[in-house]
Amino acid sequence: MDTNINAAVAALTSTFPNETSLNKDICAQHAHTTSHIPAQLPDAVLFAENTEQVAQAVTILAKHNCPIIAFGTGTSLEGHINAPMGGISIDLSRMNNILAVNQEDMDVVVQPGVTRVHLNQHLRDTGLFFPIDPGADASIGGMAATRASGTNAVRYGTMREAVMALEVVLPNGAIMRTGGRARKSAAGYDLTNLFVGSEGTLGIITELTLRVHGIPNHISGGICSFPTITKACEAVIETIQMGIRVARIELLDALQVKACNLYSKSSLPERPLLLLEFHGNEQSVEEDRRSFQEIAEDHGGTAFQWSIDAEERNKLWKVRHDAFWAASSLIPDASIFTTDVCVPISRLAECVDATQRDIAESQLISPIVGHVGDGNFHCLILMPNDKPDMEERIEAFCQRLSQRALDMGGTCTGEHGIGQGKRNFLAIEAQSALPIMQAIKMQLDPQNIMNPGKIFLDDNS
What we know:
Blueprint: H1 3-15, E1 20-21, H2 24-29, E2 44-47, H3 51-63, E3 68-71, E4 88-91, E5 98-102, E6 107-110, H4 116-123, E7 128-129, H5 140-145, H6 153-156, H7 159-162, E8 163-169, E9 175-179, H8 191-195, E10 204-211, E11 213-214, E12 218-225, H9 229-241, E13 246-252, H10 254-264, E14 273-280, H11 282-298, E15 302-307, H12 310-321, H13 323-328, E16 335-342, H14 348-361, E17 368-371, E18 376-383, H15 390-407, H16 423-430, H17 434-444
Parallel strand pairs: 2-4, 3-4
Antiparallel strand pairs: 1-2, 5-6, 6-10, 7-11, 8-9, 8-10, 12-14, 12-15, 13-14, 13-17, 16-18, 17-18
Helix pairs in contact: 1-3, 9-11, 9-14, 14-15
């Protein structure tokens, strides 16, 4: 340990003897294990129980110039929770209370450790639901910090649209509130959205006010197969351009479908597949479903299966949400490299087609899945552990994919974030805005103790 970190750990343990752990296994659980990025352990973990504890801990750690990494459930994919300089992981999972449900105003106030499944279970009897669904049962605080998205984003938006107000502990230990419960405001800078997506580099989110939605009266979901992935993407593009009110539209390529069938014991047609869901009243849902089916048929779509039965739909979405683990199981004991990009919807088919050709030419094994209604897709690249020489090839592919997305007017990451893994491409994508981002970071966190080594390349990490 660095001398400052030793002193910080001693001070933290003295102040929070029952909440602080130096156990190596616990520290290992708070480093990155859900991606190819190697784990870098913190020196200690503080299990915070309220905002005041977080503020007090940050004040102590700032005095010792000690790195601080906020931890939710650890489901992020770009090394966000690693501790490349050591330091303290502040685990917010015990801050898991739902503080208020304002049913008439359709908003809720929660602590950061509340997970999306917990929140929706709590809301079920109110007729409301929280639509942001990244697949994993992530914590709400972590979802805000990484600007999470997911299967419902095409209709309901991302965390950027869902978060109305925040309580944040700043790097000096001060507690700040941003935003409010009004549906709109023209008052000053939008500090709420400054912290949404800041990946824990500007402060620690300790409370959130969220916009929620009414549970639809009628939901219809189903699947449709296509002869090629390009045809599936073309159907998506036309569906969005025609203004069809699709709530979810997910793509699985043929290899991913095969993996899902093997892993989930399902029997989906092993061709490029779209999974869809429509929300609304019975008449509007049926109109949208028919309109989509006409478009899909024009692009070679077949094997339509539709259902309004919640249990059947949930089974399908369980298969989709298990796609990561299904892909991992294609090659036992393989490492999995996950990456995502997002492009304007008009360039989706072109980008996915070029990416599939690149995968084949690079002799890689990589299923493709995507939240394609907003132009976002993921590659799940498998590397057998007995072929470590593939890592350089995989890295080169990921670099080409990110550059391809940027060349098409897109982004190097639609929802995974920058973390450690995509810092070089943020520099390319942000260009003249990057110095402004760095200036904001320096102004709020001059010691660079908040999640150092993330987002920016030149922070001496």
